[in-house]
């Protein structure tokens, strides 16, 4: 048996915090990893998923059975590195078959130190997580696969839970940087990097914004000192209830009349800034095929999602912000479970969506939201003139 064949048959085990075990084969790096086990339903786009900072702290399982066919390349990276805590697939591709590929998925996982597992019944695991909810988990391979069942389970059960965790500091840039507008210039937008994706910044620049990306450690005074024409809060990992400081930054900007657009984590933080609560979903929305209705038009959009928390706002009526920001409507709703997928402020220039309109990877149904943001900023500047 060759070294390559031996490597493909090294044992690994996935252990869930409820004691459920799945035995499979080692994939990617060898060793031990701990995180929250979640599933992503996209049939494509595994590279964008792996490099999305929003997946930090999560062991991601792909529900698509065959993963790795198109390899990996530098062009489709959504950040500078792979962020998932671990990776689970059923059948990893043995051959890379794409002219754009530069490396195999297995090689990239190994070089990034991402411990994975393959060869398990991912359909059974998906059904289990849908019933029991996302939970802490561990993948063990190499020397760690020899740990006793009790030792492995204890490691999983004593790991940090996602609820209450602030992970933005782990994924945000540490230094501010700028991207010039590539479209007809509209103005400047300050982007709070809570785990921003490269495609998001490119789409903002294409809409005519000079993009000023600032770290999550920035203060409200520093943001306002930039005198931005608009403010954008990005996607990101963790519990929005653990980001009080970012909520206060947003409130300060809204009180100063700065137009605002937020996506994903930025939607949850707008909800909190307006006075609404947030809560953890049983198993979240992750994938590129989530149906969402735009309540203003009745149009159904197929959208890209990655969130385990949601805003607790009334979907049956316009409500009043308890923080003094006027009337608020839920603009978008998930058709699978009626989760709030967007907020629209009727008395101030601010809106947000829970999904990923930058469509990386995923459908482009919601890309128009960047145009809506541009138009809102232009209208706001005209009103101030």
TrEMBL record:
Catalytic residue positions: 264, 356, 358
Gene: carA
All copies of domain Carbamoyl-phosphate synthase small subunit N-terminal, residue ranges: 10-140
The protein's role, per its UniProt record: Small subunit of the glutamine-dependent carbamoyl phosphate synthetase (CPSase). CPSase catalyzes the formation of carbamoyl phosphate from the ammonia moiety of glutamine, carbonate, and phosphate donated by ATP, constituting the first step of 2 biosynthetic pathways, one leading to arginine and/or urea and the other to pyrimidine nucleotides. The small subunit (glutamine amidotransferase) binds and cleaves glutamine to supply the large subunit with the substrate ammonia.
Protein name: Carbamoyl phosphate synthase small chain
SUPFAM superfamilies given in the database record: Carbamoyl phosphate synthetase, small subunit N-terminal domain (SSF52021), Class I glutamine amidotransferase-like (SSF52317)
Region ranges (CPSase): 1-185
The reaction(s) this protein catalyses: L-glutamine + H2O = L-glutamate + NH4(+); hydrogencarbonate + L-glutamine + 2 ATP + H2O = carbamoyl phosphate + L-glutamate + 2 ADP + phosphate + 2 H(+)
Annotated CDD domains: GATase1_CPSase
Pfam family, one: CPSase_sm_chain
Pathway linked to the protein: Pyrimidine metabolism; UMP biosynthesis via de novo pathway; (S)-dihydroorotate from bicarbonate: step 1/3; Amino-acid biosynthesis; L-arginine biosynthesis; carbamoyl phosphate from bicarbonate: step 1/1
Binding site for L-glutamine: 54, 236, 238, 265, 268, 306, 308-309
Database matches in Gene3D superfamilies: 3.40.50.880, Carbamoyl-phosphate synthase small subunit, N-terminal domain
Family indicated by similarity: Belongs to the CarA family.
Oligomer status and interactors: Composed of two chains; the small (or glutamine) chain promotes the hydrolysis of glutamine to ammonia, which is used by the large (or ammonia) chain to synthesize carbamoyl phosphate. Tetramer of heterodimers (alpha,beta)4.
InterPro entries per UniProt: Anth_synth/Amidotransfase, CarbamoylP_synth_ssu, CarbamoylP_synth_ssu_N, CarbP_synth_ssu_N_sf, Class_I_gatase-like, CPSase_GATase1, GATASE
Entry keyword set: Amino-acid biosynthesis, Arginine biosynthesis, ATP-binding, Glutamine amidotransferase, Ligase, Nucleotide-binding, Pyrimidine biosynthesis
Domain of life: Bacteria
Ligase is among the record's keywords: yes
Keyword Transferase: no
The EC number(s) this enzyme carries: 6.3.5.5
């Amino acid at each position: 048996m060759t070294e390559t064949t031996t490597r493909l048959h090294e044992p690994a085990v996935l252990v869930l915090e409820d004691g459920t075990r799945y035995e499979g084969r080692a994939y990617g790096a060898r060793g031990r990893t701990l995180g929250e086990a979640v599933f992503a339903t996209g049939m494509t786009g595994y590279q964008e998923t792996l490099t999305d900072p929003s997946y930090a702290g999560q062991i991601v399982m792909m529900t698509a059975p065959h993963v790795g066919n198109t390899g990996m390349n530098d062009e489709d990276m959504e950040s500078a590195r792979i962020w998932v805590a671990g990776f689970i697939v059923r059948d990893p591709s043995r051959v890379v078959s794409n002219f754009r590929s530069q490396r195999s998925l297995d090689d990239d996982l190994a070089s990034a130190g991402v411990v994975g597992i393959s060869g398990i019944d991912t359909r059974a695991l998906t059904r289990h997580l849908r019933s029991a909810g996302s939970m802490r988990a561990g993948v063990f391979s190499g020397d760690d696969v020899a740990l006793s069942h009790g030792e492995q389970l204890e490691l999983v059960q004593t790991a940090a839970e996602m609820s209450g965790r602030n992970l933005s500091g782990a994924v945000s840039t540490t230094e501010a940087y700028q991207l010039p507008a590539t479209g007809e210039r509209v103005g400047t937008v300050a982007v709070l990097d809570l785990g921003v994706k490269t495609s998001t910044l490119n789409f903002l620049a294409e809409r005519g914004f000079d993009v000023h990306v600032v770290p999550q450690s920035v203060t409200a005074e520093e943001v306002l000192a930039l005198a931005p024409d608009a403010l954008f809060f990005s996607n990101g990992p963790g519990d929005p209830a653990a980001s009080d400081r970012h909520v206060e930054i947003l409130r300060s900007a809204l009180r100063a009349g700065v137009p605002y657009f937020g996506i994903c984590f930025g939607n949850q933080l707008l909800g909190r800034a307006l006075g609404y609560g947030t809560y953890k979903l049983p198993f979240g929305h992750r994938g590129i095929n989530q149906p969402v209705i735009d309540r203003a038009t009745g149009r159904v959009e197929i959208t890209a999602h990655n969130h385990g928390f949601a805003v607790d706002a009334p979907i049956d009526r316009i409500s009043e912000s308890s923080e003094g920001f006027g009337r608020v409507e839920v603009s978008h709703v998930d058709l699978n479970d009626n989760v709030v997928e967007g907020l629209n402020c009727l008395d101030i220039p601010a809106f947000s969506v829970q999904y990923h309109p930058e469509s990386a990877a995923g459908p482009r149904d919601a890309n128009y939201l960047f145009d809506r943001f541009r138009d809102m900023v232009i209208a706001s500047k005209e009103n101030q003139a």
